[in-house]
């Protein structure tokens, strides 16, 4: 009888692990993220419980390893909770992170987090967002589109450090911004909450955890081409700011970079318009930055109605990645990096365009998967 119960637990554990393996497939995870989180947690409980009781019933010598595994598994969320508390709560001021929601054209929401502590965000980073009044039981990952931190402000100043005091980082508030397209589940609830507000924004309390990613700064490339589609601009925008600052401070090899953004309507530019103005105000912006907007559902007259910074081109047509890559190869400076962030089909087209030319010049390709 003991053996029968043990084998049943073993079968339950096997089914749990097999379910986790199938559920972890990227397309399913991105399409149904809220459902994925709930089922993933249930699968973990079933898998670990099945494996533990299977070994316990037989008193197997591997049982201590099960205790170690469960301990490490419990430490991971505990460490995340401590990290969330540290960055989102200031003990002296007794303040918690505040979140501002703004409804934008194209069913998008701008999230602005005011953190009480400094954050050192690398270009291309993402964070996990916790909004208890929207999704009380889950954290959702979003790319960091823009950030400002008083604690790290000296790193962006034009003055070079001349003393140890100049190198000290003073802890201070930070602002983290994300752009979220409304799909289903949490993102839809987020947009509905912001769009139905009587004022132009909604204030909530929340938290963020991270940042993660940001492995490639692209500062070693002479030429950089940044492709983005839809909300994929949130991943690419931080690279523009980082590379432009590096050019001004002579800490980056980049001498030319192009931002290509494909959007359905020109109104989508309002998502990032304040940040485009900040970029245009930076020194040497017109010398090395070129912005190309491809608007698929607008007439030329509509596309020109929104004032844009200098060196910005608006095309009322679909993007042709092959032509853009070929044009940039002709004026390439040093090694070239091509990055893309957008839906799967768009990413595939950019990858194919780079692959056809990768043998001609020194070109590296970087992809960031995105679901909208």
Automatic annotation (TrEMBL):
<keyword id="KW-0560">Oxidoreductase</keyword>
<dbReference type="GO" id="GO:0005886">
    <property type="term" value="C:plasma membrane"/>
</dbReference>
<feature type="transmembrane region" description="Helical">
    <location>
        <begin position="65"/>
        <end position="86"/>
    </location>
</feature>
<dbReference type="Pfam" id="PF08030">
    <property type="entry name" value="NAD_binding_6"/>
</dbReference>
<keyword id="KW-0406">Ion transport</keyword>
<dbReference type="InterPro" id="IPR013112">
    <property type="entry name" value="FAD-bd_8"/>
</dbReference>
<feature type="transmembrane region" description="Helical">
    <location>
        <begin position="6"/>
        <end position="25"/>
    </location>
</feature>
<feature type="transmembrane region" description="Helical">
    <location>
        <begin position="32"/>
        <end position="53"/>
    </location>
</feature>
<dbReference type="GO" id="GO:0006879">
    <property type="term" value="P:intracellular iron ion homeostasis"/>
</dbReference>
<dbReference type="Pfam" id="PF01794">
    <property type="entry name" value="Ferric_reduct"/>
</dbReference>
<dbReference type="GO" id="GO:0000293">
    <property type="term" value="F:ferric-chelate reductase activity"/>
</dbReference>
<keyword id="KW-1133">Transmembrane helix</keyword>
<keyword id="KW-0813">Transport</keyword>
<dbReference type="Pfam" id="PF08022">
    <property type="entry name" value="FAD_binding_8"/>
</dbReference>
<keyword id="KW-0249">Electron transport</keyword>
<dbReference type="GO" id="GO:0015677">
    <property type="term" value="P:copper ion import"/>
</dbReference>
<dbReference type="GO" id="GO:0006826">
    <property type="term" value="P:iron ion transport"/>
</dbReference>
<protein>
    <recommendedName>
        <fullName>FAD-binding FR-type domain-containing protein</fullName>
    </recommendedName>
</protein>
<keyword id="KW-0472">Membrane</keyword>
<dbReference type="InterPro" id="IPR017927">
    <property type="entry name" value="FAD-bd_FR_type"/>
</dbReference>
<dbReference type="InterPro" id="IPR051410">
    <property type="entry name" value="Ferric/Cupric_Reductase"/>
</dbReference>
<dbReference type="InterPro" id="IPR013121">
    <property type="entry name" value="Fe_red_NAD-bd_6"/>
</dbReference>
<dbReference type="InterPro" id="IPR013130">
    <property type="entry name" value="Fe3_Rdtase_TM_dom"/>
</dbReference>
<keyword id="KW-0812">Transmembrane</keyword>
<comment type="similarity">
    <text>Belongs to the ferric reductase (FRE) family.</text>
</comment>
<feature type="domain" description="FAD-binding FR-type">
    <location>
        <begin position="91"/>
        <end position="218"/>
    </location>
</feature>
<dbReference type="InterPro" id="IPR039261">
    <property type="entry name" value="FNR_nucleotide-bd"/>
</dbReference>
């Amino acid at each position: 009888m003991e053996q029968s119960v043990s084998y049943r637990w073993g079968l339950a554990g096997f089914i749990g692990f097999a379910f986790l393996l199938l559920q972890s497939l990227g397309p399913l995870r991105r399409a149904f993220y809220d459902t994925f989180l709930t089922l993933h947690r249930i699968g973990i409980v079933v898998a670990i419980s099945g494996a533990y009781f299977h070994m316990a019933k037989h008193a197997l010598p591997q049982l201590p390893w099960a205790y170690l595994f469960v301990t490490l598994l419990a430490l991971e969320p505990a460490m995340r909770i401590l990290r969330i508390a540290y960055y989102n709560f200031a003990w002296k001021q007794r303040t918690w992170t505040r979140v501002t929601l703004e409804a934008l054209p194209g069913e998008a929401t701008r999230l602005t987090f005011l953190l009480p502590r400094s954050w050192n965000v690398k270009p291309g980073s993402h964070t996990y967002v916790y909004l208890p009044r929207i999704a009380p039981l889950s954290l959702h990952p979003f790319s960091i589109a823009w950030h400002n931190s008083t604690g790290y402000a000296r790193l962006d100043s034009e003055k070079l450090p001349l003393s140890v005091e100049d190198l000290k980082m003073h802890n201070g508030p930070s602002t983290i911004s994300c752009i979220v397209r409304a799909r289903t589940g949490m993102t839809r609830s987020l947009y509905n909450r912001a769009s139905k507000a009587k004022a132009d924004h909604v204030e909530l309390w929340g938290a963020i955890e991270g940042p993660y990613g940001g492995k490639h700064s692209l500062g070693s490339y002479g030429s950089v081409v940044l492709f983005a589609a839809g909300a994929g601009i949130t991943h690419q925008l931080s690279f523009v700011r980082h590379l432009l600052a590096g050019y001004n401070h002579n800490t980056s090899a980049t001498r030319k970079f192009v931002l290509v953004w494909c959007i359905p309507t020109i109104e989508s530019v309002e998502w990032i318009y304040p940040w485009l103005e900040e970029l245009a105000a930076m020194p040497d912006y017109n010398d090395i930055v070129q912005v190309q907007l491809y608007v698929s559902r607008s007439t030329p007259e509509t596309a020109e109605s929104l004032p844009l910074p200098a060196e910005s081109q608006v095309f009322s047509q679909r993007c042709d990645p092959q032509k853009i890559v070929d044009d940039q190869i002709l004026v390439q400076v040093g090694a070239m990096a091509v990055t893309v962030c957008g839906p799967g089909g768009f990413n595939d087209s950019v990858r194919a365009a780079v692959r056809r030319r990768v043998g001609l010049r020194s070109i590296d390709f970087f992809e960031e998967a995105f679901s909208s």
